[in-house]
From TrEMBL:
Annotated Pfam families: TrmO_N
Alphabetized SUPFAM superfamilies for the sequence: YaeB-like (SSF118196)
Coiled-coil features, chain-numbered ranges: none
Source taxonomy: Bacteria, Bacillati, Bacillota, Clostridia, Lachnospirales
Entry's Gene Ontology BP terms: methylation
The protein's name in its UniProt record: SAM-dependent methyltransferase
Length: 158
């Protein structure tokens, strides 16, 4: 097995002060020209789920109420995976270029979660006009905006 080196470039803060990304000082210049993008793709590390046990779990019992009784990890958005990498599209509220802070609307990461990378969301590469999903989840919202008011708590078995 080949080993790859991945370095954190900052942290995700999700606390009483708000929801934001804080870059390590050496990565602040990488923010140049990010203004104008309404959304970014945030790659982060499920650090709370990084163990041999979680990394070796490949099948899980029904995580979603209407899903098949068992699902492969690659058919879920579970934090339990061979490489605990997460991807979340987030809305950019404000960028503080001086301090390397990006205020964002929401992210499903815990406070002080390691940040791996940021890429601008571009519809020509990231948007699929007519995505197809399995029947058991085709009632889920069709956009990030609609997800904000969706009763997600009624969808999960945990």
């Amino acid at each position: 097995m080949t080993i790859y080196k991945v370095n954190s470039i900052g942290v995700i803060c999700n606390n009483e002060e708000g929801v934001f990304i804080k870059l390590e000082p050496q990565f602040i210049p990488a923010l140049k020209a990010l203004e104008g993008f309404s959304h970014i793709n945030v790659f982060w590390w499920f650090s709370d789920f990084d163990s041999e046990q979680f990394r070796s779990t490949l099948v899980t019992d029904q995580p979603y109420k209407n899903a098949p009784e068992q699902m492969g990890i690659f058919a879920t958005r579970s934090p339990i995976r061979p490489n605990p990498i997460a991807l979340t599209v987030v809305e950019v509220i404000k960028i503080d270029y001086q301090n390397g802070i990006i205020q964002i609307g929401y992210i499903d990461a815990n406070d002080n979660t390691p940040l791996l990378d940021i890429k601008p969301y571009t519809p020509s590469l990231d948007r699929v006009e007519v995505p197809v999903v399995p029947e058991w989840c085709n009632h889920w919202p069709k956009s990030l905006e609609q997800s904000a008011s969706f009763a997600w708590e009624n969808e999960f078995n945990f």
